[in-house]
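Weekly structure sync, notes
Attendees: PL, DS, HV (note-taker this week)

Item 1: Transcriptional regulatory protein KdpE
DS walked through the input record. Source organism listed as Candidatus Promineifilum breve. Sequence as pasted into the shared doc:
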Amino acid sequence: MSAGPRVLVIDDELQIRRFLRISLEAGGYEVHEVANGLDGLGRAAQLRPDLIILDLGLPDISGLEVLRRLREWTTTPTIILSVRDADRDKVAALDAGADDYLTKPFSLEELMARLRVAQRHARPGPQSSTHQMGSIEVDLSRRQVTRDGEPLKLTPTEYALLRLLIQHAGRVLTHKQILREVWGPDYVEETHYLRVYFAQLRQKLEDDPSRPRLILTEPGVGYRLAVAPEGD
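Item 1 (cont.): predicted structure, written out as tokens:
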């Protein structure tokens, strides 16, 4: 018999994890569990779960930070389970990319119903946290970039630009789109930023920065990341 949908539970309360495992397995789910945020990020990248149940109050990094990092590379439906019931906490989690929010203590029947709804709304297709571009490998779950296996040091802005290109690989991003996403809406006219930072990125990523094959310029429009290095 094939296993049911995979659920990853990220919660530091042992009793909650045990309760969820017993209850969800009885409902036909395949359950995996971790007790902190960093392990949760690693497990999510390895397991590729169908659903994630996430606590906000984790011992290492906050559940909100876990959620933000997940949303850098995956749209896996994520339901927050938390003792925090203030509207500001719910709004912050939903703004960060949560699909739903339940407060503890919770009704098992309601949780199961919300899991079913989240499954119905899930975007289809596999999502990988690792992207290979010739000799360059980017692991979005770990925020690591390597070239021929050796770590590359990118500034936060350079990494944000690269991540944005990867998220829209093969598509042209306009100057204003990039500036809005990376610097914010007040910077959409500052196109000189892009010339500087894309030149820096090419110096680090391209074999020949003067003849780029990964990060391509669409004259007068913007930039795009080649799905396969140009010329291959």
